[in-house]
Structures are given as C-alpha cells and as structure tokens.
Design a protein that fits this description.
2 domains, Tetracycline Repressor, domain 2, mainly alpha, Arc Repressor Mutant, subunit A
C-alpha cells in the first residue's frame, strides 16, 4: 500500500461517517466532527461579521452569509436555527472579548490602582473597530425592539461594568475616587458611558487615534478628577 486513501476511507482506516473498515465506530470520530463543526461555525461567524458590517443586519439573508462563508444552507442550519441566533452568537463572542480585554488590562496593577497607567492599558487594548461598532449599533437597535435580545445586551453591559467595578472596589483602600462618582459601581457606569460616547463619535469620523485619545482623557478625568493632560 502507498498510504493513499480510497473512496471515503481515511489513512487511519476510518470512513467519513466515523466508522472503521470493519464497521465499528472510531473513538476519534466525535473529536473530528466537533473540530470540523467548530471550524464551520467560526467561518460562518467571520463571514456574517463582514456582511453585517457592510450591509446592516436587517438587509442580510442566510443565503448571503452562506455564500460569503462558502457553505450551503445545510451547514448554516447545523449550527444556527435562525439568522437572529447567529447575530446573537456573533455579538456575544465580540462582547466577551471586550470584557476580557478590560479585565486583563485592569488586573496588571497591585492593590494600589495606578489610574493613568490602567487607563492607558484599557484604551490601548479596547476593541475600537469601526466594523464592530456598526454591528454593535445594529444589535442595539435590534435589542430596543426585542425584550429577549435587550436582556442579553443588558447582561453583557452588566458584565463589562462589573469587571471595572470589581477592580475599583479592590483599590478603594489605596486609591480615592472622586466623590461625585459615588461608589465603585457608579464609577464603572461612568466609564462605560464614556466608552459609549467616544465610540459613537468614532462611527461618524472614523478617527481611531482621536477616539483613543479622547477616551484616555475622559477616563482619567472621571477617575482622578483631572484631565491627565499638561496645562
């Protein structure tokens, strides 16, 4: 034998349905199916992200997502029941990334929170991507009309806020926050609101460097009571 495969049989003796030549199940078959399905799902999400950003969620069909990903409708329906479900999964993946970025950036200090350094890290790693902001804005509009989607969006915003509030709470004995912000949760709400405002401006002027600069100044001013810029 030269090691090549014949028909639907792979080099390890299994067929595409995950059985061996004698008809018994292969232990590796579930792993291969899981990996293949994960790759298919990832490609569908990547393709959907590009199509949603270019056209808007309400103007996209399942067929367009499948065509962009290079898959059939069958591949789509083996991963998602509806376009709404895919849209939610896409939002969840990106939103989780942002929450993780913020938490990681804030975790690098000791007990004493170095506000300027933390703000610098947060603004550098935060996902300020115009395509993502377009998709996020679509999701916000969608959520405003669908209570179930709104709950999912509120859950993400709560997790993002909690990541900030937890870090500020740990620093309360070492770092004093401006009294106007109240407690750590109030400060976290102000941080998220500043992010919302800066990213809205970014959608209009597409200036990422300016957005990072404004976000840095706003967060520094909120958390220290000063602008962080030279007089």
């Amino acid at each position: 034998m030269d090691g090549t495969t014949t028909g639907d049989t792979a080099m390890d003796g299994t067929t595409r349905d995950g059985t061996t030549r004698d008809g018994t199940a292969s232990d590796d078959a579930p792993k291969r199916v899981t990996r293949r399905r994960a790759r298919t799902r990832a490609r569908l999400l990547d393709a959907a992200f590009a199509v949603f950003a270019a056209k808007g969620f309400g103007r996209v069909s399942i067929e367009e997502v499948c065509e962009a990903a290079g898959f059939s409708r069958g591949a789509f329906y083996s991963n998602f029941a509806t376009l709404d479900e895919l849209f939610f999964a896409l939002y969840q993946d990106r939103a989780d990334l942002i929450a993780a970025q913020v938490a990681d950036a804030l975790a690098q200090d000791g007990p004493d929170l170095d506000v300027p350094a933390s703000v610098d890290r947060v603004t550098e790693v935060l996902l300020l991507d115009v395509d993502w902001l377009l998709v996020k804005t679509d999701f916000l509009v969608h959520a405003a009309r669908d209570p179930a989607v709104a709950r999912a969006l509120l859950d993400h915003r709560a997790r993002l806020r909690q990541a900030v509030a937890d870090r500020l709470a740990r620093a309360r004995g070492h770092t004093e926050l401006p009294a106007v912000l109240g407690d750590a949760d109030g400060a976290a709400r102000a941080v998220v609101a500043a992010y919302d405002g800066v990213t809205t401006q970014l959608l209009l002027d597409r200036d990422v460097d300016a957005a990072r600069g404004w976000l840095r100044q706003l967060l520094t001013a909120l958390l220290t009571g000063s602008s962080g810029t030279a007089a």
